[in-house]
Structures are given as structure tokens and as C-alpha cells.
């Protein structure tokens, strides 16, 4: 794919507006020293750009844009609509959001607007009109950055009205709404559209020990869809205005990986390029970060931008450890390895005040270029400069697809029962981690994706099976594909009503099993999986009690009243195969099943050897680029199959061992 950028963008959020002018010159000097070539500006400047309802003042932004243009930086120009100006809230209190608890917010914080407020929409549209008219055509602007990290919902009366309109459009009649939500339960039948209210904490919300559950998943899931759509309309409003003035510069907004609130697959269709902010915690597994990158790449099936990462530490996590020497570099290469065309930081100069003063930045409070962080940023800057355009726009081919679906995410985590410990992303990650550890590339795929591109589709906890999905999976398998799914799959339709006739509902024929009951195991409780060769390994969380309907058993339960009954099965369907995992095996148990599957499906790892290194591939112009990354705590031998190769980053021969956070880039 052709990248929209002339080189890897290397820079990040830059807020010169928070600093006196003499600091700006110093900034530019330091940026050049560090090999920084781009800056993201104007992220939170609405109050300055528009000091009151009638006045706009672009004098400072003009200066910033002029300076960066003169100095030949690529500009990512944000629109500033991510935080409301105080005057607007004072004059029009309805622009702020009402939270899940039903509290109308006062001025403060950010990401604080009601998406359906016409006042907000009017002012946001006007501001963007001014910005687009003024700055479109500046060749240094390489990307538009709409708002910032859209998130959180609103439960105000205005949103409630908009929700009713949204429902009318979706369902047509109130009868259809009642049927979809199964409102006969607890006598919730609606006789008038205006009786429908936002399902917040004061309505259908259920607090399950801090978990946000619901009495009626049907309405709650629809409200989540509606909120995601409402914020998406805010994005589209700004995007369309920018497009009137600027016909071609890519427009994006920064996403947040597995953030639950927004259906990013739907969003990505409206974005020219996906960008996202990567803030792993000190204890986030590297495989989880890799999965997030693959998810962000999967949204459009295209390279993405890393809009933000910290060069050193965060401020908003409970424990904000420093990135260890070399860690930022390794994390940056991991990002490129999984499909990024940019490496951008939050932020370029560390804030003097506000809650982010302890957030790391390229330039620290000392202002010095002699810091560890500044030197590491400079080293990476030089390396990326010498890599040039080598990897820009490179592909990331994969034979395995893992399904990810926001409707399913919401629905699964709303369920009241069978277990509060059922976490969507954890479940997906367990499957992802297997392939990651075996160096088998993975795509994260939407449920309406093109399955035919893959040898294997993994669909763990495919709880909600929407219209057409079972048929698409049947076709995929009938044509020779391999599918793996398991417990909590095929249970409900798009409204969270059960597919009657026995679990896994529409997947029953495909899987060749019937799950009669689902046992929940509390923390500390276990069952076990027994494989025919004697291998026995623990399983936990949930246990489906299965009947074979054409499938063969690959493992049986070891304990309890269902000891000896099938737990893991395999079925042949058309020319393909379906694995069903009825419980949560430990890592070794899942590896046993996935190992068998990978072998029979013929999916190939990127290298013949086993290694604890991360190995990730991009492909461009018929050449393979393999990234070897050491995220372990110890030096690791470089696999023998790379002996004699050259590291394309340093130009040196590949060493025998790679130290912690070491990186190698090998071309084949
Ligand atoms: C988010 C925001 C930034 C900044 C960083 C801090 O990603 O987009 O404005 O607050 O977090 O980590
Ligand atoms: Zn609202």
C-alpha cells in the first residue's frame, strides 16, 4: 500500500502555546538534534482560538504553523474540539455531558461534551470551518487530527431524545423494539416512544461489585451502539468540513486500542488512516500490546499511525514506571513491525503544570539534551532517518484471523452470569498469545470480514452471532477453512436474545456438538482436561457440558459429575474442520489444542526454530523484513537461521545473542 507520508513521521504532541516564545526556538533546535521531523499541534486550544462566542483569534496558531513550516516540519494539525472552553459551558450548560450516574458535569476536565448537543455541534463545526479555511493548502500539513481520543458517553435528556430517533430508524416500530428487547420480561413493555429512557445507573444499570451490568442487555447494547454512532457523527461533521477545503490530506482521530466504548471497525470506515495511542502499563504483556497493534491495523487492513506513546513514563496509571534503557526503542520498533508508518510521542516538551507534569516527554523539566530519554529519542531519530522509506506502507500478511467485535465485547461483558470473570479481551488475548509466541502472524478480523483470506479463523467467546455470521463461517469451513471456537459462543442474537434450540445455537451444526449446561468455576476451583495420550492439564472459569453430534472428542473432563464427558472436540464440515474448546484450558492445554490445529491447517511460523524473541514480519516490494525483538529479561540466542545476515538498522552482522530490548531487522 502507498503510504500517505513522505517518510516515517517522527515527532508528537507539541504545545508551544503553553510556553513563552524564547522556548520555541530552543524547541526547534532540540527537535532537529533529535531527528524529529513532525509535530502534532493545536490539540487543546479551543479556549484560546475562540475567547468568546463571537471572536476567533488565530494569531498564535499562525505563528506556530509558520514556524514549523519555515523549519520544514510535517504538521499534524488537530482541531481542538476535545475540550470545551469555559465560556461555552457557562453560557450553554447543556454542552457538557451527563454521566452514567446521571450527573450533569460542570466545566472542567476534557472529553466532556454531549455528542448530541446542537450547541456543541454548531460551535465545533464553526471552529473547524475557520481552521480548515485558514490552513488547508499548507503543504506542511500532512494529516488532520480531529478532536482527541473520543470517549465516554452521555445520558442527558437530549441524548435520550436522539436515542429514540436512532431507534425509530433502526427498528421502525415500537413493536419491533419491544420484541428485540424482550420487554415482556419484568413488564417493561413500551407503549410510547417517549417512555424509553437512557439505560444508565438510575434506569437499567446494575452494579455488580464495580462491574457495569444491566437488567436489559438489549437496550444497553443498543445505547452503546447509539453512543458510538453519536460520537462518530461528531467526527464526520468535522471531517466533512475539512474535506470541503482540503481535498486530499488524510484525516484521522486518535483511537485507543481495545477501548470498549466505540465500535472502531465502524469508525475506521470513516477514517482515511487509523491512528492510535499506545500506553501499555509496566505489567502489560508484550503480546497484548502486539495484539492491540494488530487490531488497529486490522480496522482498515492497512498500516496505521502511532499517534502517541510516552518516551519514558505515564502519569495516569497507578504505578508509572520508567521505560528501561532501550525499552522505548524496542517498543517503537514493535509498533513499526506490526504495521505503523509513524512513531509519535506524547509529548515533545514536558508540562509545567496540570495533571500531566509527571508525564514523560522528549524534553524534560531540566530542558537538557543530556538526559537519557533525550539521547534515546535522538538515537531512534537517527535510525529512522537512515531507514528512510524502506518500510513505509509495507504489508503484514497473515494466515490466521482472530475475530474481534465490539457488539460482542459489550454483550459478553453485560451478561449477568455465568461468571463475572469473563473478560472479552482476556479471552481473545489467550488465543492471540499462542500465535504470537509461535511467530505465526495474525490479523484481527471483524465478523463481517473476508474470511477466505485465511487458513484459520479463531472465534473465542463468539457469544453474539449476528445475522449472516454463522452462514459466513459455514462457507469458510465448507471451503476448507479451519475454525476454532468454544464456550460462550453462538448463544445470542444482535439483541442479546438466546438462539433457541440448544447452544451453540447457529454454530451447533458447524461444531457438531450440543452444550447442554454451562458450569461456572469460582476462583481457585479447577477441573482438568485429559487427552488420550495421558496428558492432563487444568481448566477453569467455565465448563460446557457437551454432547457429541458428529464431532470427535480430543479431550475429556477429569473431575466432577461430568468427568469423562467431552471438553474439546473436532468436527469435519464440508472440506474443513471445526475445533470446539468447551472450557478455559491453562496455557499448556490451549497450546496443545492450537498446536494440533496449526499443524493440520498448515499455518507456518516465520522461522523454523523456537525462540523467546518476538518475530514479526512486514513485506514490501517482494521482500520480507523480519523484526526480532527481545522483550525478555535476559540475553537470548539469535536463531541459527539468521546467522550471516545483516541487521538493517545498524548495518552490522547479526550477533549471536540479543540483549534485553535488543532489536534486529533482517531483510530476506
Ligand atoms: C492521551 C491523550 C493525551 C495525553 C496522554 C497522556 O493519550 O490523548 O492528550 O493526555 O493521554 O498519556
Ligand atoms: Zn447528551
From TrEMBL:
Span of domain Beta-galactosidase C-terminal: 613-668
Enzyme class per UniProt: hydrolase
GO cellular component labels: beta-galactosidase complex
Record-annotated active site: 149 (proton donor), 308 (nucleophile)
CDD domains per record: A4_beta-galactosidase_middle_domain
Pfam families documented for this protein: Glyco_hydro_42, Glyco_hydro_42C, Glyco_hydro_42M
Residues of the Glycoside hydrolase family 42 N-terminal domain: 13-387
GO molecular function ontology, one term from the record: metal ion binding
Enzymatic reactions: Hydrolysis of terminal non-reducing beta-D-galactose residues in beta-D-galactosides
Sites where the protein binds substrate: 110, 148, 316
EC number: 3.2.1.23
Gene3D superfamilies, A to Z: 3.40.50.880, Glycosidases (3.20.20.80), Golgi alpha-mannosidase II (2.60.40.1180)
Limits of the Beta-galactosidase trimerisation domain: 398-603
GO annotation terms (biological process): galactose metabolic process
Domain of life assignment: Bacteria
Keywords: Glycosidase, Hydrolase, Metal-binding, Zinc
Binding site for Zn(2+): 114, 154, 156, 159
PANTHER family per record: BETA-GALACTOSIDASE GANA
Family: Belongs to the glycosyl hydrolase 42 family.
This protein's name: Beta-galactosidase
Lineage: Bacteria, Bacillati, Bacillota, Clostridia, Eubacteriales
